[in-house]
Design a protein that fits this description.
There is one protein chain. β2 and β3 form a beta hairpin. It is globular and about 35 Å long. The chain is mainly β. The strands form two sheets. Strands 2, 3, 4, 6 and 7 form a five-stranded antiparallel sheet that branches. It has a two-stranded antiparallel sheet with strand order 1-5.
């Protein structure tokens, strides 16, 4: 599934530079500004993600490791 959680570690694939691994500090609903603890893909819903970083370059892609099923 395609979901993100507060406190989770994710990676930004950055064009022409080294990838940046960061922790998601907080997330907010983009329309209301309300804090959320998780975001699920495929729902046509935008969120703002606050991460520990000096800035994420434009055109970067967010990815995370998928845990194998047991």
């Amino acid at each position: 599934h395609n979901e993100l959680y507060r406190g989770e570690e994710v990676e930004f694939v950055v064009p022409e530079k080294e990838n940046i691994t960061v922790k998601i500090n907080d997330m907010h609903d983009m329309e209301t500004g309300d804090p959320i603890s998780e975001a699920h893909g495929g729902q046509n819903h935008a969120v703002i993600i606050d991460v520990e970083s000096g800035g994420i370059p434009a055109m970067s892609v967010l990815r995370k490791k998928i845990k194998p099923k047991k």
